[in-house]
């Protein structure tokens, strides 16, 4: 028996008349949006009530590494700067050594300038003269007629001598006792005044006859440098103090503290009095401070470090002396005459 087609079977189903109510319900269903029933594992998680307004933001991408580390880098830089400032404030004169550039002396922030303003000088090399390579010069002054008065140091080697400038020949010499270490020397009224290292003693010589001499004591802590303005003696003892001494009694008349930018300048060594100022070499540096003896303020600096580049033997000699006074290893065998030049200094500092 052949099966009838589905269409025919459908046609054979009895037609049932639908009521008006059923037709209205069916029309409403057709107008309503269709909903698709999802499988259990695809159904959405129930959302929280609307009044909570909870939303899950999308995860933002991480910024680059250098941006994330920027706050840490800034903090480390600030800490490093603070450490540098603290070290600089706590060690004001530690960099002042012969191997340091003279600019280290000026590495502090400039204070508001008060007249007279500090000036800086360099030099021009004029000429050179021969010199006894075994003379450890501590005091030196021009005696006129191309001659020099010189005080030399080292134990068992110290002396006071008169030297021919052009030839370096020793014309007159007085050998000091072996326990004495000769230091600063100056000339006042035909008398040579000399101090010695690590003692409160000194000597006065007749400039024409070194055998005529007398001794004296002073109140400085030590004997380093001497100079005079023709009326009083100026002395240094290796500190920041500049003394004024009565040439007759050798009593201290006045003491000032040498300062630059409100900081003390220690290790004042050999002294010279020039045009109303006391020029002081700062020991273990290549600098000369121009000092006002009225108040101790430094009014200028002279930088001589360039001498090392043209005269290596000077540096070698100084190094050998610091290691143990081995003056035989290297010799300082010449005098150097220089011209102080402020224009040259300004040009080099631009």
Automatic annotation (TrEMBL):
Basic and acidic residues bias: start-end ranges: 7-19
GO molecular function list: glutaminyl-peptide cyclotransferase activity
Xref: InterPro entries: QCT, Quino_amine_DH_bsu
This protein's record includes keyword Amino-acid biosynthesis: no
Pfam families associated with the record: Glu_cyclase_2 (PF05096)
Membrane-crossing residue ranges in chain numbering: 72-94
Region (Disordered): 1-52
Keyword Transmembrane found: yes
Biased composition (Basic residues): 32-45
Keywords: Membrane, Transmembrane, Transmembrane helix
Name recorded for this polypeptide: Glutaminyl-peptide cyclotransferase
Native organism taxonomy: Eukaryota, Viridiplantae, Streptophyta, Embryophyta, Tracheophyta
């Amino acid at each position: 028996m052949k099966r009838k087609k589905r269409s025919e079977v459908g046609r054979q189903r009895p037609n049932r008349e639908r009521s008006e109510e059923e037709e209205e319900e069916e029309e409403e269903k057709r107008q309503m949006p269709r909903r698709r029933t999802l499988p259990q594992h695809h159904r959405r998680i129930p959302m929280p009530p609307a009044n909570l307004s909870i939303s899950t933001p999308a995860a933002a991408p991480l910024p680059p590494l250098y941006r994330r580390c920027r706050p840490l880098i800034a903090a480390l830089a600030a800490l490093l700067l603070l450490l540098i400032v603290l070290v600089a404030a706590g060690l004001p004169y530690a960099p002042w050594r012969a191997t340091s550039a003279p600019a280290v002396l000026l590495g502090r922030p400039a204070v508001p300038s008060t007249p007279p303003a500090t000036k800086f000088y360099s030099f021009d090399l004029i000429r050179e003269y021969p010199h006894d390579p075994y003379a450890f010069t501590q005091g030196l002054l021009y005696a006129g007629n191309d001659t020099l008065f010189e005080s030399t140091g080292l134990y068992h080697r110290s002396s006071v001598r008169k030297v021919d400038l052009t030839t370096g020949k020793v014309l007159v010499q007085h050998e000091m006792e072996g326990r004495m270490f000769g230091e600063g020397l100056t000339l006042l009224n035909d008398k040579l005044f000399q101090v010695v290292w690590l003692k409160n003693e000194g000597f006065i010589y007749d400039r024409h006859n070194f055998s005529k001499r007398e001794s004296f004591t002073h109140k400085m802590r030590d004997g380093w440098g001497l100079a005079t303005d023709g009326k009083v003696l100026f002395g240094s003892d290796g500190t920041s103090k500049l003394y004024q001494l009565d040439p007759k009694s050798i009593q201290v008349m006045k003491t000032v503290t040498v300062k630059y930018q409100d900081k003390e300048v220690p290790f004042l060594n050999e002294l010279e009095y020039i045009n109303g100022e006391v020029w002081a070499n700062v020991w273990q540096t290549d600098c000369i401070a121009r000092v006002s003896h009225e108040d101790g303020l430094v009014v200028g600096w002279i930088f001589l470090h360039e001498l090392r580049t043209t005269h290596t033997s000077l540096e070698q000699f100084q190094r050998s002396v610091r290691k143990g006074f081995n003056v035989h290893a290297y010799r300082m065998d010449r005098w150097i005459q220089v011209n102080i030049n402020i224009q040259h200094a300004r040009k080099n500092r631009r």
